[in-house]
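Lecture 7 notes: from sequence to structure.
We start with the chain below.
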Amino acid sequence: MLGSSAFSFISDYAYYLFAFAGAFSVVLASVPIVRGVAIHCGRVDLPCDRKVHEIPMVRLGGVAIFVGTMVAALGLWYVGGFSDLLPKDHQEILVMLMGGAGYFLLGFLDDLYSLSPKLRLICQFAIATVVWSFGISIDFITVPSVGIVHLGWLSLPITLVWIAGMVNAINWIDGLDGLASGVSAISTLITACICLSMGEPSVALLAICLVGSLCGFLVYNFNPACIFMGDGGSYFIGFMLATISITGLVKGATAVTIPLIVLAVPIFDMMLVIVSRLIRRKSPFEADKSHLHHRLLKVGLSHRWTVLFIYALTLWMGCWAFLIVQIPYGNLIIAGVTPVAMSIFWKAWQSKEISQSFVSD
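Predicted structure tokens for the same chain:
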């Protein structure tokens, strides 16, 4: 009886293990190839005043993230990981993958040819509109103390703003080694757990493919990094996070705040930058050093401790969504994560004081 139960457990979660391991392995194997080709072709990101790295870096790592996620997802499709879905759900998964390919291609072209901000934004809205027309849309939201609110014609602009906003939020937070990939991996993993608890296993499966790709990429991207994801990677990740949250969280959530909590750190960073630039009467799309990671570096945190600080903040903030959806033992998860996060915050602050003492000496 025990053996049968154990086999059932392994069988139920085999697809998730396949999704993570498959994506992780593909990225692990493909990054050196992508890096070698990019160096041979001279496709590197040069240092400048607003950037932290001091040597030329390959910034086409998004190719590996995209390939790893797509290979794992299509592999799952082939072996039957999505076989229990209804036709409508099959269409949603395919639209998400095709939309992700469109955003990756847009970002990849930007990496190669430096497209203008206006053209990028127009293309982002165009792809998001096509995705919306195929049913990946925010049609209603559930607001605490109010109930279900149907959006009607507002569905299109709200969906477009959400998708384009998340794409740019991930793109803008990609300023330090391992920052965007780590924050995205944490947020996507939390999203996958919530999707599972809400009866959205197919969306969770797709999310795990992305988590596997991001973890594989972190092997090469964590400080000191040897490759960057570039706009191709950040656009793809942002789109996948946005649409996974639409199909897995917003439509079935008990409150519209869930995706906002899970993705609080990149959203806060984007809003901080926009407000800061507008106050200084600059274009929101004009690059500067007003991001959260720039501010933490400025007060004295090291590169690595800044990244770990933001990781801990992302994990701690995201886990509060477990309480809203009433995941079993959600309160215990918060109780376990909180001291870990506070320990990292404290150690990061101590490293700041130590670094300042060395400067004063």
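Points to note: The first helix runs from residue 2 to 41. Residues 2-285 form one domain.
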